Amino acid sequence: MPLDHLRTFCLSLPAVSEDVKWDHDLCFSVGGKMFCVASLEPPLTFSLKVPDDQFDELLSQPGVVPAPYLARYKWVLLEEGHPLSERQVTALVRQSYDLIKGKMPKKELKAAGLL
Questions:
Q1: What CATH code is carried by the domain that includes residue 71?
Q2: Which PANTHER family did the record assign (predicted)?
Q3: What value, to the nearest 5°, has the Cα angle with vertex 79 and ends 78 and 85?
Q4: Does the predicted TM-score (pTM) go above 0.90?
């Protein structure tokens, strides 16, 4: 999935913000908590959170590796050339968004306009 498609999709989700961290990573957050991190420098890679039961299954795919620094929290990194379709990737990004949003306290959800 090209970076512009990923960015458009992430920003279409409710209450999402973006910022650049670590000088070269575009981070998408909901309520100040990251749910997707994309490289701004080639090759295009991006990381996202997945449910515990999907973590090992996704890692068995070529081009999907444990996300550096975040794998212990069940984040995967999709490398350029991974075999997942754009539809599968958008479903994973949406799932990551939902996982992160689901852990937010009601007070934060309300402040972000998500309740």
A1: 3.90.1150.30
A2: CYTOPLASMIC PROTEIN, CYTOPLASMIC PROTEIN-RELATED
A3: 65
A4: yes
How far, in Å, CA of 98 to CA of 64, rounded? 21
Q: What is the pLDDT of residue 112?
A: 84
Distance in angstroms (rounded) separating the CA atoms of residues 33 and 27: 9
CA angle 7, 26, 91 (to 5 degrees): 45
Q: Which helix (H) or strand (E) holds 25?
A: strand 25-30
**Predicted pLDDT at 99:** 97
Range(s) of the domain holding residue 67: 3-111
Q: What are the strands of the beta sheet with 64-66, ordered from one edge?
A: 16-21, 25-30, 33-39, 46-49, 75-78, 64-66
Between CA 55 and CA 64 the distance in angstroms is 10
8 A C-beta contact, residue 19 and residue 36: no
Domain count, the chain: 1
| CA-wise closest residue to 30 among 10, 4, 6, 8 | 10
Low-confidence ranges of the chain (pLDDT < 70): none
